[in-house]
C-alpha cells in the first residue's frame, strides 16, 4: 500500500505544474497508512513526501500537510538513546554548564590559549599603543617596524610557552633605544641618517627571515640582548647551518685557488712552518674585496707543505 502510494505521488510530482488536488488527496491517504520504521526505510516514501512539500504549483495547504507528515514521522522514528547512554549523558556536564560553574577557570584557559598563539592574545594594532610617544617620528617608525616583525614571529613561532619569553613590543622598544644610542652616541651620527636606515632594514630582514628562525627566538627569549643585537653584523646573525656552509665554501675556494695557481716566484725569506726550510714558491691573489690586502699562497719546495697568509 505504502509503495503504491509513493509511486502514484511521484507520478503526480513529475507533472509541471502538479495537480494540487490529486497530490493533496494522496497525502491524506498516506496519513491513514499505519507507518513503521521498517516500511519507511523500505519504501523511501518520506523522501517523496518531502518533495511534495517543495513542489512547484502546490497550494499552501498541500505544503503544510506534507510538512506535518514529515514532522510526525521524524518525531516518531527519531533514534532514541539507550538507557545507559541516557544516564551517561545526564551525568556528563555540558560545556556551557562548566563555563557557568567556573567562569574564572574558563577565562584563564582561554587567556592561556590566546597567549600561546603569541602576542598575549592581542592584536598588533592594540599592542603598539604600548610604544612610548617620541617627538622623533623616525624613532616611532623604527619601533613600529621592529615591533611588527617581532610580534609576528612571537606568534608564528609560538614563543610564549618558551622559557624566558619576552613581550615582543617591549623588546622592540629596547632594541630601538639601543640602536638610537649606538647611532647617535657611539657612531656620532644623527637619528634617521643613512646608516640608521640601513641598519633598521637589515635588522627587520633578518628577523623576518624564514631561513633563520633561531635568531628571532633568541631575541624574544632574552638570549641575545638588545645591546648585543644592534652591534651584530649580518654574518653574525646567520644560523649555525649557514655559517657552516659558508665556511665549507671558503675552504673549497681556497683549495681551488691552490690547485689553479701557476708557478710563482721563489722566495728565500718565507720560512715553512712544517720543516723550517726557506725554499718557498708563492703567488698572490685578490680573494676578498678590493680594499682588503691580497692573499699570499705558499708551497714549500722541500716538503710540499701548503699555507696562506694575508
Relevant terms:
310 residues, alpha+beta, N-terminal domain of TfIIb, 3 domains, 16 helices, 4 strands
Characterization of the model:
This protein has helices spanning 2-13, 20-31, 37-43, 45-53, 60-77, 83-91, 95-101, 103-117, 124-127, 137-156, 168-186, 194-208, 213-220, 226-229, 234-237, 240-260, and strands at residues 265-267, 280-285, 295-300, 306-309. The protein has a 4-stranded antiparallel sheet with strand order 1-2-3-4, with no helix packed on it. The chain has 3 domains: 2-77, Transcription Elongation Factor S-II, Chain A, CATH 1.20.930; 116-239, no CATH class; 249-309, N-terminal domain of TfIIb, CATH 2.20.25. Residues 95-106 and 109-119 have low confidence and may be disordered. Helix 1 packs antiparallel against helix 2 and helix 10 (137-156) crosses helix 11 (168-186). Helix content is 59%, strand content 6%. The relative contact order is 0.05. It is an alpha+beta fold and 310 residues long. The protein contains 16 helices and 4 strands.
Radius of gyration: 40 Å
SSE pattern, N- to C-terminal: HHHHHHHHHHHHHHHHEEEE
Helix tally equals 16
**Helicity range:** 55-70%
- Strand tally: 4
Strand arrangement in the largest pleated sheet = 1-2-3-4
The CA-CA distance between the termini, in Å, is: 104 Å
Amino acid at each position: 500500500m505504502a509503495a503504491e502510494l509513493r509511486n502514484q505521488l511521484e507520478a503526480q510530482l513529475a507533472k509541471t505544474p502538479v495537480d494540487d488536488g490529486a497530490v493533496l488527496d494522496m497525502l491524506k491517504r498516506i496519513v491513514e497508512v499505519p507507518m513503521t520504521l521498517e516500511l519507511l526505510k523500505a519504501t523511501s516514501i518520506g523522501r517523496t513526501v518531502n518533495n511534495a512539500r517543495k513542489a512547484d504549483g502546490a497550494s499552501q495547504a498541500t505544503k503544510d500537510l506534507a510538512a506535518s507528515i514529515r514532522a510526525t514521522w521524524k518525531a516518531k522514528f527519531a533514534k532514541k538513546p539507550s538507557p545507559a547512554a541516557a544516564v551517561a549523558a545526564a551525568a556528563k556536564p555540558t560545556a556551557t554548564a562548566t563555563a557557568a560553574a567556573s567562569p574564572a577557570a574558563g577565562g584563564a584557559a582561554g587567556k592561556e590559549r590566546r597567549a600561546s598563539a603569541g602576542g598575549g592574545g592581542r592584536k598588533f594594532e592594540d599592542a603598539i599603543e604600548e610604544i612610548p610617544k617620541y617627538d622623533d617620528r623616525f624613532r616611532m617608525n623604527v619601533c613600529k617596524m621592529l615591533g611588527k616583525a617581532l610580534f609576528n614571529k612571537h606568534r608564528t613561532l609560538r614563543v610564549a610557552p618558551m622559557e624566558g619569553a619576552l613581550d615582543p613590543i617591549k623588546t622592540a622598544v629596547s632594541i630601538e633605544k639601543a640602536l638610537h644610542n649606538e647611532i647617535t652616541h657611539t657612531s656620532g651620527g644623527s637619528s634617521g641618517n643613512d646608516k640608521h636606515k640601513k641598519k633598521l632594514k637589515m635588522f627587520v630582514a633578518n628577523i623576518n627571515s624564514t631561513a633563520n628562525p633561531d635568531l628571532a627566538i633568541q631575541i624574544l627569549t632574552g638570549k641575545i640582548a638588545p645591546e648585543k643585537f644592534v652591534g651584530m653584523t649580518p654574518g653574525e646573525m646567520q644560523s649555525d647551518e649557514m655559517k657552516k656552509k659558508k665556511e665549507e665554501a671558503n675552504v673549497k675556494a681556497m683549495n681551488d685557488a691552490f690547485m689553479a695557481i701557476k708557478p710563482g716566484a721563489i722566495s728565500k725569506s718565507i720560512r715553512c712552518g712544517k720543516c723550517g726550510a726557506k725554499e718557498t714558491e708563492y703567488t698572490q691573489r685578490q680573494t676578498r674585496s678590493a680594499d682588503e690586502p691580497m692573499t699570499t699562497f705558499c708551497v714549500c719546495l722541500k716538503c710540499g707543505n701548503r699555507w696562506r697568509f694575508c
